[in-house]
Amino acid sequence: MKQAKPYSGALAAVPIALALLAGGASASSHREAPFITTVPKVDATDFYMFRSYESGRGDYVTLIANYQPLQDAYGGPNYFAMDPNALYEIHIDNDGDARENISLQFRFQNALANNGAGVNLNIGGKSVNIPLIQAGAVANVKDANLQLGESYTVQVVRGDRRAGTVQSVSNAANGSTRFDKPVDNIGSKTIADYATYAARHLYTVNIPGCSMPARLFVGQRQDPFAVNLGTIFDLVNAPVGVITDPTLIGALPNTIGDKNVTTLAIEMHKSCLTGGDDVIGGWTSASLRQARLLNGKTGSGHQASEKAGGAWVQVSRLGMPLVNEVVIGLKDKDRFNGSKPSGDAQFADYVTNPTLPALMEIALALPNAAPTNFPRTDLVTTFLTGIKGVNQPKVVTPSEMLRLNTAIAPLPFAQQNRLGIVGNLLARGNDNAGYPNGRRPKDDVVDISLVAVMGGLCLANGDNDALALGAACKPSAVPLGATAFKLHDAVDQAVVPLLPGFPYLNTPLPGSK
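Predicted structure:
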């Protein structure tokens, strides 16, 4: 077995950022960098990677990438179509070198009905185009009442995302390589039974190089993330007595509980994702063309107002939740969104000398509360290399991404610990299938990260170093002591409504009831 590569100081900073990020973050990666706020259609919000816990699907891995944050269900008349000039990707590293081995690439196409003519009404003897997406009730795939239809393709790239071998994912039922996306949940009058309508867009697919059929769904969902958003970014505007009282974990409503997102979800057999190791790493990205030209004469058809060309430029990146929001400095947030895990050494100072713990001290008026074990090897291990014996690959290059041990069996939803591995340590339980070993929808990454960033893992580990968190990771380095375990944002992730099976995220909220 090859030895793990030594991590640089830069990489050590990332994990702490990760941990703190959730503790002082917004809805995961919603509006996390200056440039991405100008192009919300390519803003990644959350990334999930976990062993499927739906009955009979335990040998599969579910990958979920969410985009377009903070969607108001009533946001018509054009709603939240994906960008046809963008490239959305999910990347998998299965050999520990912080470079993608498998990439799933999603491209979208928006087209008006009737070969681009749209839906027209006879008004006083003239055929006039209607102003809405729909001309009546919608219930079926390619429904005749839809004026605007969205479709997409998925390609699997093996090797480098731009120079590797490219093959198309196909519909197992008919061999087609183009899939239809359901229109957003306009409201109950337009779509009386959205759950049934959306389910008609769930596909069994064949992935080249994979002998087991996969499942695919792309469409709007209720945002699955829970966070006390406004309070967190207002310098943690909450009494310490509240956020350290475990009986108040669900005291406040979820700030973004009334928002939707757009989900790209695929479920693949674990053997199709692994290399010579059970541990895989994953992250998602979005890219735009280098050149964008506004078209001042769009014509009478549904032609793009924007002409795009040139090389792809990555503008969004997301692996672990909340890193860019609360770990990376403001001046480097756009740089992080354009970077790859293999280049994470450039952000080292943000990890080795993180500012979030100090900001927490100021915001909460708790002087000398931040851990003192520098460099933060506990966070490096937990978030940048994976935990030995849990989700650390045989060969590891320290970098920021989700890491999942596909050999650890999933637990049914009711048995999952909302605090993932942190909760498992505290409860001396058997749930090692949760964050930061991958990420499940139920995992309360805000509370987990708060505990970790303020030294809770060091405290749980004691002097035995059972998790190999580093010599500096001792209980004496945790000024908050046992209080670190009690930290929370007063919003309970575990009560967010979810589905029992793929695609797991709940039916989106309707524009009207």
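Summary: The radius of gyration is 23 Å.
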